[in-house]
Design brief:
The chain has 422 residues and is an alpha+beta fold. 33% of the residues lie in helices and 26% in strands. The chain has a domain of 179 residues: D-Amino Acid Oxidase, Chain A, domain 2.
């Protein structure tokens, strides 16, 4: 299949959406691929999202309007954003760099890059779901941004203008049109935005597992094990695992999500400028005879409510904190109170509440490419809260770079060299 001998074997570290997508893209090009993850496919960060595949995700958190919002955010006036002050102060370099990317030029570069990556991922997702036999998990009826006041709707004008500039299909709804789409929402939203260029799934975990199962039918391997050390030698890499195995490969891909920072520092002394957008979810039953047809984002309540196989998944906004800090339930409890104002909800399910960390680099773009100073070590990390929407495109771009193919999208905005030096 045109693959040179030097790139026949690859070990991918991480079996979330991004890692499995990288493995699939490489395996489809004829490489021998082994994925390592102690928890198995889709069991960590990829488990906890709202299952939305949306072009509207091209909007980074650090947009030019952030400066006007900053005082209210710092005062804790936004239910979708919380932070742990001592940890944030300790990450001041990351914070300053993050704010510096809220300039217009940086915002335009990021939105253009993310739009290309999301569009590529959407196309690949659609094809892969059919080939993996999981197309029934997908809905193609968009998602909704809900506004509790006209002032709130007016405050979202910049976002709507940005989506329009990139050709994202949307429709503004009044209360009556919203009721026609979602009749069981309570009448507390006078305005809404229907993002029509969006799909959703009924279980992000099962989608990743479906992709991993398909990878194995194609001849790839998925091992429930953890890489504890990498050793470089003339033939490539030896990956040592917690179970005591040693795997030889010409190339290694690090797709460990929020665990990438500590892993790369421990192995190579690399200082990855990564912070963590922590988020939580819980599952609720809809009230009797009520239905939610698509995910909804309550912009004032700061939560997303999404129909899932497990019930209705309530996901919180962002908490900036250390990756392994204990959970704080206040944000999740506030989200549930707001959600009950918006829709008739039943009891919580028996599923435990979930907490995960989304890895965020200062420019809100992932790293995709070869690690500076470390030949044949590839990075696919830093996808913040949109790894589900960007994973397949990441896999395709990384495979194209590894094999020297023409790239479908511009790799320059995602180059690791923007933050790492040889």
């Amino acid at each position: 299949m045109g693959v040179t001998r030097a790139v026949q074997r690859v070990v991918v570290l991480g079996a979330g959406m991004v890692g499995v997508a990288c493995a699939l893209s490489l395996r489809q090009r004829g490489l021998s691929v082994t994925v390592l993850d102690p928890l198995g496919p889709g069991a960590a960060t990829s488990h906890g999202n709202a299952g939305v595949l949306a072009r509207s995700s091209l909007m980074p958190f650090n947009h030019p309007g952030l400066w006007a919002q900053l005082p209210a955010l710092l005062r804790g006036k936004n239910p979708g954003f919380r932070y742990h002050l001592p940890w944030v102060l300790g990450q001041w370099r990351w914070g300053l760099s993050f704010l510096s990317h809220a300039r217009t030029a940086a915002f335009l570069e990021t939105t253009t890059a993310l739009d290309a990556l999301i569009r590529e991922s959407g196309s690949v997702h659609r094809r892969w779901m059919v080939e993996a036999g999981i197309a029934q998990r997908r809905r193609d009826d968009g998602w909704l941004f809900l506004y509790r006041s006209q002032a709130g709707f007016d405050g979202g004008a910049f976002g709507r203008e940005t989506l329009a500039r990139f050709g994202v299909a949307t429709q503004v709804l009044d209360a009556r049109a919203l009721r026609e789409l979602e009749p069981d929402l309570k009448p507390v939203f006078p305005r809404a935005l229907w993002v029509q260029d969006a799909s959703s799934v009924d279980s992000p975990t099962e989608v990743v597992r479906g992709y991993a199962a398909w990878l194995q039918t194609l001849g790839g391997s998925v091992l429930a094990d953890e890489a504890t050390g990498l050793h470089r030698h003339s033939g490539g890499w030896t990956v040592h695992t917690r179970a005591g195995s040693s795997l030889d490969a010409e190339h290694v891909v690090v797709a460990l999500g929020p665990w990438s920072r500590d892993f790369l520092r421990g192995q190579f002394g690399l200082k990855l400028p990564m912070a963590f957008e922590r988020g939580q979810h819980r599952h609720l039953r809809p009230a009797k005879d009520t239905v939610l047809n698509r995910p909804v984002y309550d912009t004032a309540g700061g939560y997303v409510l999404a129909p899932m196989a497990q019930g209705l998944r309530l996901t919180t906004g962002v908490e900036l904190n250390a990756q392994h800090a204990p959970p704080h339930k206040g944000q999740l409890e506030a989200a549930e109170r707001a959600a009950r104002e918006a829709m008739p909800l039943g009891e919580r399910t028996t599923d435990p509440d979930w907490l995960g960390s989304r890895p965020t680099l200062p420019d809100c773009r992932p790293m995709i490419g070869e690690c500076p100073g470390h030949d044949a070590l590839w990075l696919a990390l830093g996808h913040q809260h949109i790894g589900f929407s960007t994973g397949p495109g990441t896999g395709e771009l990384l495979a194209q770079l590894m094999l020297g193919e023409a790239t479908t999208i511009d790799p320059h905005p995602f180059r690791p060299q923007r933050f790492l030096r040889a």
